[in-house]
Write a structure and sequence with these properties.
alpha/beta, 43% helix, 11 helices, 7 strands, 7-stranded mixed β-sheet
Length: 339
Amino acid sequence: MNPDSQNAMANAHTLRMVDYNQNSEVQALAASILSELIKKFAAKILVHLAPNEILNVCEYGCATGGSSIAPIRAIEELAGQRKVVIIMNDLPMNDWKTLETTIEAKFPRIDFKYLAKTMYSPIAEEASIHLGYSCFAQHWLDNGAPTGLPGDALWANQLPMNCLERQSWEKASRDNWKNKLLLRANEIVPGGRLIIHIHSSLNCGNLSEKFAETLRKAKSQMITNKELSPEQAIDLLIPQYCKSPAEIFNILCTPEMSSLWQMEEAHHQQLPCDELFEQSNIQKQIGFLKGFLDSTLRTSLNQLQINRFWDHVSQLASNDPNALTSNGMSTFISLKRVG
């Protein structure tokens, strides 16, 4: 993969969110489930805080706020009259203006701070955060794609387990996950919590969303029709890696992580996302996909090619009402900082 394309993929990590709030039903569903864990375990944090002590919170990978409203509402309700400060963190190219507009009017009593940098770096001072949380962020890789993808794969999860390219992506994801846990352990106070939603794969490592296979077929048709150059085909990918339960929990169960984090609760489940869409409403489903994919596609395709890509997707879906279903796997975890 050439350096220019790799840099563009790194920037696309947040550019994908331009239309996020307009197509965030799936994200909001995951956020509502995450909020139940926040209600349960943030309440345990508050028991040990002095009445006048500020509750310090950080959201890692906030995007434009579509996944933030439900968790923030849960935190505000629990805090009551207590002052709450929330750091909203994402990459510099995030749409920060949309984020501010989305959250500040809804939560005027909360003091928001904005930090534009990768979540795979220090975000807050040592032992300063009581509650950290993240929703739909962990599967996006730091530094973009580690390699191009051979054939018609759009996600590394669509490659065989023994494929060297897939193994490179798996390693990058594993390193990101370990690094994130170590960084958050430094920032979160003993007894504090890190509550995370991770967009995941099936236990076999494959994707459960049928839309992923349909999009792969669209790429395949463009390759067959010579609508992509060989270089574009390799660079046409989504810089996500969806970890299996083993890939998530194996890291958490190492002696190093066990000395830092106690796992309090975890769920690996399929989200009933298809209930959010009428299966006959292809354009609504495509709108959801464009909301987080179009800016990534722009890093390797021109606008005419992007239009052709979605034309192929629409045609494939027109003959199959299930072609764009989005019932993805999710892992929800509450971790308590040991100490």
